[in-house]
Design brief:
The chain is mainly α. It has 7 helices and 5 strands.
């Protein structure tokens, strides 16, 4: 009989090496810290179904996106990562989305997914469909000042 020792990270990913598990957990925490620069999004079915958007600051989105992509370089050196950083608003988030979905853990990729939900006016919708088709959603800003 062979005994196999596994280590399970906070997000459920399993590792055979304790150090790799700790490194993964540290990366997950760092991704959260980077993404904490963005406004908190609603966690509701209504938001997911197009009942409004969160208005972000342009520079904050681009700075956070670039910091996140620099962080992603610890997983992949794919040329699309740097091309997306260099391209600014001229590069759609879908440019690297699939590649990231295949090369980074889901608990890291989910953070990138937020950028796929932000349209060209820096409005974050509950899903990428509404970022690409905002006319299909309710035009209600959910994070108005004073509310």
């Amino acid at each position: 009989m062979q005994v196999i020792k596994k280590y399970k990270a906070d997000d459920g990913v399993e590792f055979l090496d304790a150090n790799k598990c700790k490194e993964h957990e540290a990366n997950c925490k760092l991704a959260k810290v980077i993404m904490s620069s963005l406004l908190v999004k609603p966690d509701s079915i209504d938001f997911s179904n197009g009942h409004g958007y969160i208005q972000h600051d342009r520079s904050e989105v681009l700075n956070t996106r670039n910091r996140f992509l620099e962080f992603i370089k610890r997983y992949t050196d794919h040329k699309w990562v740097q091309a997306t950083i260099d391209g600014g608003t001229d590069v759609h988030p879908s440019y690297v989305d699939r590649m990231l979905g295949e090369s980074v853990p889901t608990s890291i990729w989910k953070h990138w997914h937020r950028f796929s939900c932000i349209d060209s006016q820096f409005r974050e919708w509950g899903q990428p469909f509404y970022a690409n088709h905002p006319e299909g959603a309710k035009q209600i800003q959910l994070n108005r000042e004073g509310e």
